[in-house]
Specification:
The chain has helices at about 40-55, 65-85, 135-140, 145-150, 190, 195-205, 210-225, and strands at about 1-10, 20-25, 30-35, 95, 100-105, 105-115, 115-120, 125-130, 170-175, 185, 230-240, 250-255, 260-265, 290, 315-320. By secondary structure, it is of the alpha+beta class. Strands 2, 3, 4, 5, 6, 9, 12 and 13 form an 8-stranded antiparallel beta sheet that branches. A 7-stranded mixed beta sheet has the order 14-1-11-10-7-8-15. It is globular. The protein starts with a strand and ends in a 22-residue tail after the last strand.
Amino acid sequence: MTIALRYAARSDVGLLREGNEDSAYASGRLLAVADGMGGHAHGEVASSVAIAALSSLDRDAFGGDLLSAIEAAVRDANHQLHAMVARDPSLKGMGTTLTAMLWSGSRFALVHVGDSRAYLLRNGELYQITHDHTLVQSLVDDGRITQEEAANHPQRSILLRALDGSGEVDPDLQDREAQVGDRYLLCSDGLSTVVSAETLHHTLTTIDDPEDVVRQLIDLANRGGGPDNITCVVADVIEVDDLQPPLGAAAVVGAAGSGRVRSAPPDTPRGAGPPPSPRPNPYSPTTTWTTNPCARPRPPRGVRAKADRARKWPSGCWSSPPRSESAAISATSGPRASST
């Protein structure tokens, strides 16, 4: 038997934004979500560049050093953004978050910059396995404000880290081991600031098909007002027969691909398709999806509109992964609102 991923991705412009600045990539080898910022086309460019840089990992050999491979791809994306701004100063101020997983069997490397998020559902418990790089999160970490105060803090939208080409990027990196039965969610804050952890937990535990899960999550965020672009990726860790043919295709959604899908080569259990070239200026208001992860857009650089809602963690939801997992990052969440 072989470990593989069953995945789904969807991205939606939301109800208030004019365009979608989120981008996401999903295959049996790579899951990634990027939330662009800088205004309209600039945010779309930034998130598309990040996804394009990481998508090269889906077709390149990188040996067993997953962390080095994904870190190098992130730094390459940052250098590309720097070069683009140097050529065209009007692009100054664009940037993107990035949360991504590079898989090899049951192991994966997790890279994270910004306030998009990754969650793990294991044995009925939900864990946030990334830590928000925001001003209010740093104030909560330092004990200067409570989580309840953070929900209404006037500077709750300020990012402390992003991929913007202005200097060397400092991503969080984790080397993690998955278990069969695990379910992972990657999402932009267009989902996590609108839909409560309790509702995320309920949706992830009660809906089996990842495709149905991402549809439901997008719908919940829009029912909560849809103030931002909404992107999410859901991936289940499963066992497949060694002789089973590839089950899916690589997908690029949001600004980077407008939902274009390519056939996946048979070099992984799930199949990792040749990544489509990113589209820097799609402006498609329609929802895009395929079999795998999340995406969504962001406001001008350093500023993100977040709902003024109270954080809510239900029983069965925790802000750090199980004690048995290595490289755990304890993370508290930003403001959230319950959805029904």
